[in-house]
Design goal:
Blueprint (H helix, E strand, L loop, with lengths): L3 H6 L11 H135 L10 H9 L4
């Protein structure tokens, strides 16, 4: 590759009937200036390329860090979800156990209350039977008493003689003798 320095240092031999030296020098000056400009642009472009390459490397490092962070976050997400599911299952199991326990307790209390009610009903039935028996006995004794009074009344004479005194009537009714 020809550089501006090569153009600056290049010397041509003088020959008869050749090109004008001033035009050649002017052309070489222009060529040198353009080569300097191109060299400066190339250096600047290389510098920019180097900066961009550094940025790309930095972005690649950042990309790897971001990928690692994403993977870490995804792993944490799965861990959190699994932990939450485990806690939810434990809460549900505890709630079910508590519900079963409360249900068992309610069934047990209900059975005790039912047994107590059955015992009270049986006791009340016994009391009712006893009361019916007492009523029947009272009714029977009342009928027996009523019968005996009717028998006494029927044995009484229908005509009462005036001679009988009140004492005799009372004695006859009560069954006492004088």
């Amino acid at each position: 590759m020809i550089t501006s320095k090569d153009v600056r240092n290049k010397r041509f031999e003088k020959a008869a009937f050749g090109y004008k030296q001033e035009e050649i020098d002017e052309f070489l000056s222009q060529l040198e200036a353009e080569l300097d400009e191109m060299d400066r642009e190339r250096t600047e472009a290389n510098s920019k390329i180097q900066i961009l390459a550094d940025k790309v490397r930095e972005y690649m490092k950042d990309e790897d860090a971001i990928k690692d962070a994403i993977l870490s976050v995804q792993k944490q997400k799965y861990d959190i979800i699994n932990e939450a599911n485990a806690k939810a299952e434990k809460i549900i199991a505890d709630a079910q156990a508590k519900a079963d326990e409360l249900e068992d307790e309610a069934v047990r209390k209900h059975a005790i209350a039912m047994e107590k009610n059955r015992a009270e009903i049986a006791k009340e039935q016994e009391s009712l039977i006893d009361a019916r028996r007492q009523v029947a006995d009272f009714k029977r004794s009342l009928f027996d008493m009523y019968k005996s009074h009717l028998e006494m009344i029927s044995t009484m004479p229908e005509i009462v003689e005036e001679e009988e005194t009140a004492e005799e009537i009372v004695a006859a009714v009560t069954g006492e003798s004088n």
